[in-house]
Amino acid sequence: MMMRKRRGWEMRESEATPEDVFRDRRRLVKGIAAGSMLAAAAPWLGGVVGAGSARAAGAPDPTADLYPAKRNPRYVLDRPITDEEDVTHYNNFYEFGSQKEIADAAQALKIRPWSIAIDGMVEKPFTIEFDDLVRKVTLEERLYRHRCVEAWSMAVPWTGFPMKALVELAKPLGSAKYVRMETFKDPAEAPGQKQFWYPWPYIEGLTIPEATNELAFMVTGAYGKPLEKQNGAPLRLVTPWKYGFKSTKSIVKFTFTDKRPVSFWETLQGSEYGFWANVNPDVPHPRWSQATERVIGTNERRPTLIWNGYGEFVAHLYDGLKNERLFA
Ligand code: MTE
């Protein structure tokens, strides 16, 4: 029988780290970095100073010239953009820990070179370097709502390219029905992957009609810059009409298949996390309501929107699937 540990997001939202607490911790760390006198007086704090930013420490990003990309005005928000500090410091990335403050730990991830395999039911399997892939497509910026199953939300200016372009490059066979996405696996860089009770690597899947829907977005950047590691650099998925756990981070493989992929969370707890995971205020998580969401940054409570407000783009994908658990 599989051993089970309580996961961070099995907590009720009200039990999760309150945002003002993590903001205060961030302020403290920033204050320490700014206080050179304090740092001099307390050299044991040196490990903390300057540990926050990926690019401060590393080599220049080889795709930096592609940013900022032109904004696509088709995707509009009904709320202000969330502060970059919140989007980059309130994260779910279990490979680096089950708490929200994994940004510093995620800097251990080496994102160059980064190879992406395309395999399974395709004309010809191949591997492509991320830096080559990103120059075969046209990057654009999109403003999307981002809704986690934990009942918090953000609004993010992502940069990326339609997943449809990746599917076209992959040339799937007509018999392929799904695309399965896989995150890197390297416990030496990602200590969370030493937690053997999780089914690493992180897996997610979409149907081909979902993957080729105009909203499905392969994200390479945010806030007009290459993506931060904690947000899933160098390449992640964003499907804004679904709960955030579908949005696989730091992808190394796309497999085209005729079998419905079983995801990381579905393997752990299939009664709570299903394949479709479309946002719906009327279908509660077994342990909490999805009727409202807490907006990160303001703490405002807003009513949850069905399909996260993207029904005009995606509701038709589910015609004829009335017997499926579309919203879990
Ligand atoms: N991808 C991987 N590989 N590992 C994860 O733990 N968490 C998911 C998703 N993708 C996760 C992941 C969840 S639960 C959410 S809500 C989003 O990433 C969070 O994305 P963000 O940290 O950029 O807001």
Structure description:
- The structure is a single chain.
- It contains ten helices and twelve strands.
- By secondary structure, the protein is α+β, with helices and mostly antiparallel strands.
- It has a single domain (46-318), classed as Sulfite Oxidase, Chain A, domain 2 (Alpha-Beta Complex).
- Strands 3, 4, 7, 8, 9, 11 and 12 form a seven-stranded mixed beta sheet that branches. Strands 2-1-10-5-6 form a five-stranded mixed beta sheet.
- A hairpin with a 2-residue loop joins strand 7 (217-222) and strand 8.
- The protein is globular and about 45 Å long.
- It starts with 18 loop residues before the first helix and ends in a 14-residue tail after the last helix.
- Ligand MTE binds next to loops.
Distance between the termini: 24 Å
Percentage of β-strand residues:
15-25%
How many distinct helices?
10
CATH architecture, please? Alpha-Beta Complex
CATH superfamily: Oxidoreductase, molybdopterin-binding domain
The CATH topology annotation reads as Sulfite Oxidase, Chain A, domain 2
Q: Give the overall average pLDDT.
A: 88
Number of extended strands: 12
Categorize the overall geometry.
globular
Q: Secondary-structure element order, as H and E?
A: HHHHHEEHEEHEEHEEEEHEEH
Bound molecules: ligand MTE
Q: Which CATH class? A: Alpha Beta
Q: From the alpha carbons, calculate the radius of gyration and give it in angstroms.
A: 20 Å
Structural class: alpha+beta
Can you give the helix content as a percent range? Answer: 10-25%
